[in-house]
Amino acid sequence: MQFDAELLLLAMAPVFLACIGWEAWHLRRTRPGAQLYSWRDTLCNAALALMQQAADKLAWLAIIPVYAFFYEHYRVHTWPATWVSFIVLFVAQDLLYYVFHRCSHRVRWLWAAHVVHHSSERMNFSTAFRQSLMYPIAGMWLFWIPLAVLGFAPKQIVAIVLINLGFQFFVHTQAIGKLGWLEYVLNTPSIHRVHHARNDRYIDRNYAGVLVIWDRLFGSYVDEDSRDAPVYGIVEPLHTYNPLKATFHEWASMAADFASVHGWRNKWRALFAPPAWAAEFHAHRAATAPLSNDVSEGGARGQSGIGENHTSAFQTQRRP
């Protein structure tokens, strides 16, 4: 089965915009005091989407030849264009998306790109547009190389990635409740609301793209609890609607932390430790401000702490 996923998503654009319009109208009517939409937030999301799309167009020019290389020289099978091959590709890419997404919450380098998507304190359909142009730099494309080795052509890989991301638009909403038995198979708005929440019981959970079976299989699933309403955003709030600051704030914070910590082990942590390492480091630095450098604050979100053996990360290089 062959089709042009980019044309499919382009055709879906009016549907996406109609969903945003309907949701804004519906939520204003049913929850008038909640302010679940904001013009500044929505415009920031739109700007980030346009920036990301432009960057992706350029990135694919460099990345597709990489997939072609692995496809030509290392593929283990050649799949005919059938529904069976589409299902295999769909399931394989969705599993790899789960791996990528989970790594993006556990490795700060990847989180520096992904944090953009989580930095809004609102959850609505427009939040799906809140993406980062830095994903190619962070290395998202590396996670799809196994698809080329499995025997899927580069255009098929690009198509299935776009389809997976297109589906995820529809899980970014507070207007739809739980969906019963579907939540044992598919990612749903309720499941994804948990993922965007910064509550202690929800943080770093529900990484599903399309299929939620991976979360259930690998122990990262948590159900949305009506007694603990999701609170959206990141642990260290961004407090800006500037799309450039939203895109680069964590990269700047990561560079500042790398420069300020002492020792190469701690510098490695500043780049690749879980984001919680940065949050704890920033909290410690704020508590001991007279003894530490003036370095910029940045967003971090994660579940794991740095542990007793990592306290040397709090040693900063002092001015001479």
Automatic annotation (TrEMBL):
Residues 86-220 form the Fatty acid hydroxylase domain. It comes from the Bacteria. The chain crosses the membrane at residues 6-25, 80-100, 133-153. It is a multi-pass membrane protein. Keywords: Lipid metabolism, Membrane, Oxidoreductase, Transmembrane, Transmembrane helix. InterPro entries: Fatty_acid_hydroxylase, Sterol_desaturase/TMEM195. It is found in: Endomembrane system. Residues 292-320 are annotated as: Disordered. Residues 309-320 have a biased composition (Polar residues). This is Fatty acid hydroxylase domain-containing protein. The lineage of its organism: Bacteria, Pseudomonadati, Pseudomonadota, Betaproteobacteria, Burkholderiales.
